[in-house]
Please model this.
Amino acid sequence: MKVVIVDTECANLTSVRFAVERLGYSVLITDDADQIKAADRVILPGVGTAAAAMRNLQRKQLVEPLRQLTQPVLGICLGMQLLTSHSEEGDVDCLNLIPAKTKRLRDTGLPLPHMGWNTLQPTAENPLINDTGNYCYFVHSFAVAVDEYTISSSEYGERFASMIRHNNYFGAQFHPERSGKFGEALLKRFLELELC
Amino acid sequence: MLAKRVIPCLDVRDGQVVKGVKFRNHEIIGDIEPLAKRYAESGADELVFYDITASADGRTVDKSWVERVAREINIPFTVAGGIRSVEHAQTMLSMGADKISINSPALLNPDLINTLVEEFGQQCIVIGIDSFYNEQSDQYEVHQFTGDESKSRKSAWQTKDWLQEVIARGAGEIVLNCMNQDGVRKGYDIAQLSALREYCSVPLIASGGAGEIQHFIDAFQQAKVDGALAASVFHKNIFSIADVKTAMAANNVVVRAIEAPQETL
Model:
């Protein structure tokens, strides 16, 4: 099993790598398009801003290679938002792999960013989670609106997509690498996933 | 629903976890990684590590333990103490810290907050504020260099003003340490936390004073904080995180249940 983490030059690469390694897999962190294409699993992590992350992917000429992947891909946090068509954060076009839009979380009087542990409610068949009502660790100010690509939603003042999927592309707004045993189980399911 | 966070705080000095009373007279509690792992497994929602010597000494200390902690635990953690440059912050984050917390260096150079937020994003920049209630002036005053008794001193800021300043500069979270309460286990400073909550549009974490389980409930229910930090009560096993979480649930405070040990992966 060849697991690749796309080197987006974002800060949480290390914790994602450690989480996968704790599950007994070895990991390659790379920005080499051929290595990414050849991987069995691709993880697209990200913290920071959408505009900066897209700039990095363009500079590394990774936009097209990422768009052509057929193996299971998991975008985490900003990495999930990059899978959508557009982000309000810096008004930037993203990878457009999942035709959803990323918008700023509405100010409903709750503290922002949305930071801490929140629950998921499945909205469609979701092969990455097997039990519901579990808490995941979130930290974000932008979110993807609930639509037909949403496979779980969460609530913070408003309802937003906490997991999305289109074909082989999956996104998680929370950080499975920092979401305790539930997050570990999710990553394990992603790594063992059989796509038909 | 977003759960309220219970956050053990580990003061680190020379690679070991220590705890003092009112920032003084530190005693050694134990090694970092086993303690971090034990807390993560027993229901901590997050951990905070304060390198209490770094800021006051004006030196950069060995932080290789950050990577060892990141390798071991599956919950988020924050590193605080002596981080005063983009390079230093980058090192902490690339070793696996989820957030970095800035205190004295932000007071010396408030622009550092903006720089860090631009570079790494708001979500990983926490501002720690050491606030002292001055009975004579009836004001909350921000103190700096509190890790070292000989250097600890009052800053020019009143807490409410500094809080608003750091939020305007992009801070993603505030840890408000109420110095009068620290280490004496008489309860969080509910009056101060409640007063400042009104000015705090980002997550607010209470620190200083936890001595009884009810203190956590009070902070969540009365001061509406997002998380509560505690050190000595957990280090000394006065009660457990599970005890706190059971009481929170019984008092209708939203809480993340402690996960059962996982079957072998």
About this structure: The interface with chain B takes residues 11-15, 18-19, 21-24, 47-49, 110-119, 135, 137-141, 155-156, 175, 177-185, 188 of chain A (CB under 8 Å).
